[in-house]
Specification:
Chain lengths: 429, 259
């Protein structure tokens, strides 16, 4: 067969709506496209005229899977514009809240969305029949992440306790300590997860990616850092727009991002890991080593393994924060609005999330720009599909299609975010 | 006697953030029990497997914002015995209904470079504007315990115990000191439906109306109180114009403060 098309109209086990299509002619892939039909919601438009105080709660609604990421980037951008910088315990509590979201989101992706691919099940519920202990472990791990968000944020989806400047109310040390037993269990479970995932068979697939992530001198990046890459990028987040551009393509309701001089780039756990291995805690470095990962990893299918390592880290970090916690004097620092522009960039579970706002002197939003991680990965995903299919054209369509789906799910694409993604079609002509 | 057939459950998504359907996966302790009690026939966020309709229960998340979705909701209704909307987008149009107060054609170029590629309706509307809905579960996001309650109620043929009284009732039940009376913090509790557990007041914050208007609201009275607390008209307008902006009592009150 010379010509062929593979298509998946509705990609499952991703957050949001999209599919992909791959066209093949004379043993060559002529086109690989992600179609995003998640409807546009126009956040950047209706944010205009809203107060800076509303941005964290409104932008959280872009994504139910990573609301904390939106809240953190929005707060950071407003604080940047108004010259306010929460430090000490408030900064640590934000990091703790973010650890909760990482644990929840990573456990969801590893156990419920991605592991079924590696073990050949349609979903985690089918998988639970043969692997009950693993699925139970995943659910409990997920629950531990949610417990952090519920305690600190009020609830796990769209937490209510985050504000520009800090929090509405901060917990007593004794309250945080109630999380310790579960987190200690979760840390062990995350180490077990790395061992379990390391037994999966990973397709032999590597590319020379440009990884982009935050980097901070003292810590594995969550809330803060400079934007760096393995190909020489090293900029403050305020220079984001000078280096990255978004493009609007006909087949997609999400904008595609590119590095202006070098095109496609890769954000997310694999990027963070490659650029910040030295900042992982000793236990998470050891878990990586035990599971066969080196200091560098260029196989996107092993992203699941890196997520597991990051889960170990997030549990470790959460425990560290809790043990050294002393409540701040005030739940939030004073923030006085002024006219100006601010930038925010934090590490959502799926990669860097950039916000920029211009405010008037009352703190009302004049302009908003939000670049979610998935729209930054769209080009890389399309390139991966092209290259992956090219070397596997001998496979029957149903197997190839499933493997393509897997190649997309490697990125844990969050389509709801990207439209603020996915049909798979492989067409052989 | 033959074993009772498990009910077929489908989950559908329209314009939304995915958070309400994630609530189902967030029922970590109950998830496998729910999955045992029903046949999950269509839930793309969780499974590749798709079983065709008809379905006993359809959960619908999200609002109608595109010409294609306007058609799709009718075919979902036709294949569903019971249709339950979950969350503020599906029951009131969601945050994306803020476009309803403006001209959406002006919005498109603010986000997209090539407006011609974008197909969208002028308004974001709740599911009830399009098809008959058997039950509406409120919240932005929904409360997962209420979701399990609604599912078990429909599976067992009884009425769900999800009160439509105001948030103040829940707040008093929790023994929280009123943030508006004691601290002068503007709070939407008096006009908002209960269901979240009075979270915001519990965190020393005023309610911001995620669960939409309660039964028989007196929004004008609340606005007068807010005025006395020094809240300006544009601020009152914005407070009513958020996640349930297109729910009628909130919409009308916001319009009363628009200049």
């Amino acid at each position: 067969m010379n010509a062929k098309s593979l298509k998946v109209d509705f990609l499952a086990r991703v957050e949001g709506e999209g599919g992909f299509r791959v066209k093949v002619k004379d043993h060559l892939v002529t086109e690989a496209k992600l179609n995003i039909f998640e409807p546009p919601r126009f956040f950047e438009a209706f944010l205009r005229g809203r107060s800076f105080t509303e941005a964290p709660d409104i932008t959280a609604r872009i994504c139910g899977i990573c609301p904390v990421a939106y809240q953190m980037s929005a707060c950071q951008a407003a604080e940047d514009a108004f010259g306010a910088k929460p430090t000490g315990a408030i900064r640590e509590l934000r990091r703790l809240l973010y650890c909760g979201e990482w644990i929840e989101s990573h456990a969801l992706h590893i156990y419920l969305l991605q592991a079924p691919d590696f073990l050949g099940y349609e979903d985690a519920i089918q998988m639970a029949k043969d692997h009950p202990d693993a699925v139970q472990r995943g659910l409990r791990l997920k629950k531990t992440g949610n417990a952090i968000m519920t305690l600190l944020g009020g609830r796990e989806i769209h937490p209510i306790n985050v504000r520009v400047g800090g929090f509405y109310k901060v917990p007593a040390k004794s309250q945080l300590r109630t999380l310790e037993d579960d987190l200690e269990w979760a840390r062990d479970a995350a180490v077990q997860t790395t061992r379990w995932v390391s037994t999966f068979t990973f397709p032999d697939f590597q590319r020379d990616y440009e990884f982009v992530a935050l980097r901070h001198p003292d810590e594995y990046p969550l809330n803060e850092g400079r934007l760096v890459s393995n190909k020489g990028l090293d900029i403050p987040i305020s220079e984001y727009e000078q280096h990255f551009a978004e493009e609007h393509l006909q087949h997609s309701n999400a904008l595609h991002s590119a590095l202006q001089e070098r095109a496609a780039y890769f954000v997310g756990p694999l990027a963070r890991y490659n650029l910040n291995f030295d900042k992982l805690s000793p236990l998470s470095q050891e878990a990586a080593k035990q599971s066969g990962l080196g200091r560098e990893c260029r196989n996107p299918f092993q992203g699941i393994l890196v997520r597991a390592v990051e889960t170990v880290y997030a549990c470790d970090e959460a425990l560290r924060i809790i043990s050294s916690y002393d409540p701040p004097d005030c739940p939030a620092i004073e923030v006085t609005p002024r006219a100006g522009t601010g930038h925010g960039c934090t590490e959502a579970p799926r990669g860097i999330l950039y916000h920029k706002y211009s405010f008037d002197e009352r703190g009302l939003i004049l302009l908003a720009k939000i670049v979610p991680p998935t729209s930054q990965n769209l080009r890389i995903i399309e390139e991966d599909l092209t290259e992956y299919v090219s070397t596997r054209l001998h496979l029957p369509n149903d197997r190839l299609q499933w493997q393509c789906e897997q190649a997309v799910r490697n990125y844990d694409p969050c389509i709801s975010c990207a439209t603020h993604l996915l049909r798979v079609r492989i067409e052989r002509e | 006697m033959a074993p009772k057939r498990r009910a077929k459950l489908a989950v559908w998504k329209f314009a939304s953030c995915d958070g309400c359907q994630l609530s189902l996966l967030d029922c970590e302790d109950a998830l496998l029990a729910v999955a045992g009690a029903v046949e999950i026939a269509n839930f793309p966020e969780a499974s590749r497997a798709v079983v065709g309709g008809p379905y006993d229960i359809s959960l619908v998340e999200g609002s109608i914002t595109t010409p294609h979705d306007e058609e799709r909701i009718h075919s979902i209704r036709r294949s569903s015995k019971i249709l339950i909307t979950i969350g503020a987008c599906a029951t009131s149009g969601g945050i994306q209904a803020l476009r309803n107060f403006k001209n959406v054609q002006d919005f498109i170029p603010m986000v997209y470079a090539k407006p011609a590629y974008i197909q969208t309706l002028n308004k974001s509307t709740p599911i009830t504007d399009h098809v008959f809905v058997d039950f509406q579960l409120r919240g932005c996001p929904i409360n997962k315990y209420q979701l399990v309650e609604v599912l078990s109620a429909f599976l067992n043929g009884r009425k769900p115990a999800t009160p439509s009284y105001g948030l103040c009732m829940e707040c008093k039940q929790r023994g929280i000191v009123c943030v508006m009376v004691a601290q002068g913090t503007p709070c939407m509790g008096p006009v908002t439906q209960s269901g979240c557990g009075a979270l915001c007041p519990a965190y020393s914050r005023g309610c911001y109306g995620c669960f939409g208007p309660k039964e028989t609201t007196n929004t004008a009275s609340l606005s007068a109180w807010w005025n006395q607390l020094g809240v300006s008209d544009p601020e009152i307008m914005r407070a009513f114009r958020s996640f349930n902006a297109w729910a009628e009592p909130f919409r009308k009150e916001s319009e009363a403060h628009e200049r």
